[in-house]
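Researcher: We're teaching a course module on how sequence relates to structure. For the next exercise, students receive a sequence and then see the predicted structure as tokens, so they can try to spot secondary structure elements on their own. Here is the exercise chain.
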Amino acid sequence: MNRWKAAFFILAGVILAAIAYLFILIGTSAESDALPKAKEQVGEVNYLTVNATKEDFEGIANTYIQKALKKEPLPVTLEVADDITLSSELTVFSKTIPVVMHFDPVVLEDGNLMLKQSSVEIGPLNIPPSTILKVLADSVNLPEWMIVRPKEEELFIDLSGLPISGDLQVKAKEFNLDKDEIILEIMIPYKNGGK
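Model: And here is the predicted structure for the students to work with:
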């Protein structure tokens, strides 16, 4: 065997070993952080119930995501249809690969939203969902109100932590995608100064 063939096989082995090491490193995840408690409103609160459609929620969510990630190099887009889809992309060896993560929404008792990952599509690659979530958490500086939990294969949306002006807070009451029925409760602090 000539030396060029030998050099090629050695180089190919080194590259494969580096890729395997990278996936092992990414795949090892530490314990997930504890979820934050919903922020409690202090004082008297007025409640406003809002019925939203999937399209409404998608528009609101993408507005907050784009505002929070405006300086991030990777795009992140949320789509609401039969499930909730989070789309982004990865660059591997100068090649851009689309990443599509599918989630099922669950309304928690405190009014926050837990997105349970149901599947993932990453070009032609077959990579575990927990690994993709770990890569997302490590490569994108997500806002504080989006908490990625790779080990649990879920994404926590802290609705009470959304940066809404006027000390308003949002809670989810119902999230039924089959019926296109999303009910949100907006808590408005009572201001006595106007009387």
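Model: If you want an answer key for the exercise: The mean pLDDT is 79. The longest strand covers residues 95-107.
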